[in-house]
From TrEMBL:
Lineage top rank: taxon: Eukaryota
Species for this entry: Cyphellophora europaea (strain CBS 101466) (Phialophora europaea)
Residues covered by the GS catalytic domain: 128-479
Entries under PANTHER family matching the protein: GAMMA-GLUTAMYLPUTRESCINE SYNTHETASE (PTHR43785), TYPE-1 GLUTAMINE SYNTHETASE 2 (PTHR43785:SF12)
Family according to the record: Belongs to the glutamine synthetase family.
Lineage, top ranks: Eukaryota, Fungi, Dikarya, Ascomycota, Pezizomycotina
A single GO molecular function term of this UniProt record: ATP binding
Record-given protein name: Glutamine synthetase
InterPro entries per UniProt: Gln_synt_N_sf, Gln_synth/guanido_kin_cat_dom, Gln_synth_cat_dom
Biological process, per Gene Ontology: biogenic amine metabolic process; glutamine biosynthetic process
Keywords attached to this entry: ATP-binding, Ligase, Nucleotide-binding
Pfam families with a match to the protein in the record: Gln-synt_C (PF00120)
Amino acid sequence: MGDLVPDTPSTPSTYVDGLAALLRHDTRVKVAGIDTDGILRGKVMAKDKFLSSAVKGFGMSSAIFGWDMHDVLYTTHTEIMSAEGGSSADFIAIPDLKSFRRIPWEDGIPLFLLRYVSSNHQPVFADGRSMIRDICAQLESLGYTAKVGTELEFHNFQTPSEDGYSNREQTRDLAGFLAKNGRKNLRPLTGGMFGYSISRPAMNRQYFYDIFDQSLEFGCELEGWHTETGPGVFEAVTCLSDPHPSDLATNVRRYLTKSIAIPYHITPCFMAKPIFGLPGNSGHIHISLLSPSGNNLFARESPDASAPYPDIVHLSDLGRHFLAGLLEALPSIMPLLAPTINSYKRLVENHWAPIHVSWGLEDRMSSIRMIGPPVSSASATRFEVRIPGADLHPHYAMAAVLGAGLRGIRKKLAVPVPPTNLRNVTELELLPNTLEEAVKRFKASSSVARDILGDEFVDFYAATREHELRSWREAVTDW
């Protein structure tokens, strides 16, 4: 892992020498950054070229922030690329040497993740990794260290073959199959609903355990790995860790899973809602703050008899401010938690997904589930943000969540609403239930998102989601 290489070298020559020693048996290196949809974009480089640019960086096309996940240029002008297709100058890609790992299923080729700076060496405002670095620096300046983790659910389908499913040796591209046959002909890896099954993984045990084992070897080990309710659905739970490696884990988890699935003729699907009438795929975020000595700052030393609500008797004042910041921000940051048209197909009643501005102690139907005493230990006190689906951009989502909590701390906000169990459903504020409504709230001149993330990013990201909306309006669907 990346601890073999210092993040900031004492001298460039010493730094490159150490890196060269690390890669002495390699001839090529893979590098990748994360685009606006949370997808890894990168290339293979000759080792000598990589070493010569490891300190100062190398040029990378700014187009990765100028098009959607299908390489269609944004139809709305942004500061990075105009609607006519003119892009800004190349960005400088800086390898994050602490992200070093080897890809076990690709003969151990080294992988380094990238962050991007402009020609004047300022962080690119659209780069999620730079956003995480900035928000963590703000927290550390106040003496806080964030711990975050994710739960990622995904469907698994049998990869269609040329003649349907009978000839698995002649697998064809999934997109091609869907264009010809329609998505209703996809066959889940297993049928029926059976969460936490200990027998169903045996039906595809080599694939199931390969993901677990190679996650460990790849440096994004799993804390939990099980079936989730739904046909062919698995859930991967990562350990709480620093945001830098943890937000990384969500991106590489999708990359790892899709790669491992290929020889098994399986297609993992990280859409928020692949199948009508069934629960969707969540991407819940767990978050807490620690002191420099490692103490949980959300935990209260002794119960607060004067707490305004029973649910927060054991929650510190800092934790209450953080929770208040989250609740106040939720309606404004929805496009960062639910970024696609499909995201809002998941956020419907009666499918274990939240639709209100809500919170509660151990309440899995709320947008914010608080975890802590008396159900859990004080050291495990944290918040679970349950709005995101598996289609989240983890960097954007985590930057928004951390920024919202930090805003609550700085403003010393009070928890604005009682927990869900003390309110009638008619009293609950609805979250935006479409991407169109979410973008309006997000880019409003007075939005909390602008206060957290700045006008430059909000205007850029709103334009990318407006492109999504325009593409959807022009599409002719089954409906």
